[in-house]
Write a structure and sequence with these properties.
By secondary structure, the chain is an all-alpha fold. The chain is built from 9 helices and no strands. Helix 2 runs antiparallel to helix 3, helix 2 packs parallel to helix 4 and helix 6 packs antiparallel against helix 7. The protein is globular and about 55 Å long.
């Protein structure tokens, strides 16, 4: 089996292990995509539906659901899933447009940032805001938001794993007392390193 296939299958097992510890972890979208890429369409459908139930705004799960249903020959269900994904995408685009207009307003009349640091246009840190920054291609602002969220909730391994994946450097974890949480942190960090290796292989 090629190394790329081995990496993908190992990644699937790691993602499943993370979700066993935290069924609502945002990596459920990544698991759905990995299962689809591996040709495990039926399981990809199940995981995608679970992801939509936990994270209605996670567009990746809706796309994978439609693709997996089509791959299984369930064209009518796939068409319904495509329509649902398009509606959600339209909502996201409308939200991005509203944020862009608000950012322009705040830039015109907002106070100058202190200490020479460029201020984010909207000071409402949330994981959703960080993901919106990423969709806009603003990785720097997304990283800032994730770091602020992690400072408020240092034991949130899902946030730590997301930040590790963006920066390519594991953030130093806070001391935790739970064995499950420590294991989840290890798995998240391993997954971030796996993503980095896969990206490097795709470039070469």
């Amino acid at each position: 089996m090629p190394d790329r296939d081995l990496v993908r299958k190992t990644k699937i097992e790691i993602l499943k292990a993370v979700l066993e510890l935290d069924p609502k972890a945002p990596v459920i979208g990544e698991l759905a995509e990995s299962l689809f890429e591996d040709g495990q369409y039926e399981e990809a459908v199940q995981v995608s539906r679970e992801g939509i139930a936990f994270h209605p705004d996670l567009l990746a799960c809706r796309v994978v659901l439609a693709e997996s249903l089509e791959a299984l020959g369930l064209t009518e269900e796939a068409a319904i899933a495509v329509e649902s994904a398009q509606k959600k995408a339209d909502q996201v685009n409308q939200s991005l447009a509203r944020l862009a207009r608000l950012a322009a307003k705040l830039k015109e009349k907002g106070p100058e940032p202190a200490d020479g640091e460029e201020a984010s246009p909207v000071d409402l840190p949330s994981a959703t805001l960080a993901e919106i920054y990423l969709r806009q291609g603003d990785k720097v602002s997304a990283v800032k938001v994730f770091r602020r969220l992690l400072a408020k909730d240092p034991q949130n391994t899902a946030l730590r794993g997301r930040l590790d994946a963006l920066t390519g450097e594991p953030e130093p974890p806070e001391e935790t007392g739970g064995g499950k949480r420590q294991l989840l942190n290890i798995l998240e960090r391993w997954l971030a390193a796996s993503r980095a290796r896969t990206a490097a292989q795709s470039i070469t």
